[in-house]
Amino acid sequence: MDRRIDCCRYQPSLDDLLADEVMEPVLRSAGLDERELREMMVETARRIEDRERRMVTGDDGG
Asked: Which of 6, 18, 59, 60 is found 20 to 30 A from 50 (Cα to Cα)?
């Protein structure tokens, strides 16, 4: 039972996820390649950080 709990604590990196054989058909079915997914994730992270920064500073961005 302890072993199962330990496996759930592992948080794979993006490289780990993309190396998984299941990801290729998933990305293909979404019409993406590895580069496009990385770019989308970077942009999403930037938007989240910008939104959090606006919430902290009280700046509504407009």
From this structure: 18
Longest dimension (CA), the chain: 52
Judged against a pLDDT cut of 60, whether residue 35 lies above it is answered with yes
Name the residue type at position 18.
L
3 token code pair? 């072993």
Neighbours of 37 (CB within 10 A): 17
Q: Which of 20, 57, 13 is nearest to 38 (CA)?
A: 13
Residue 21 structure tokens: 């054989």
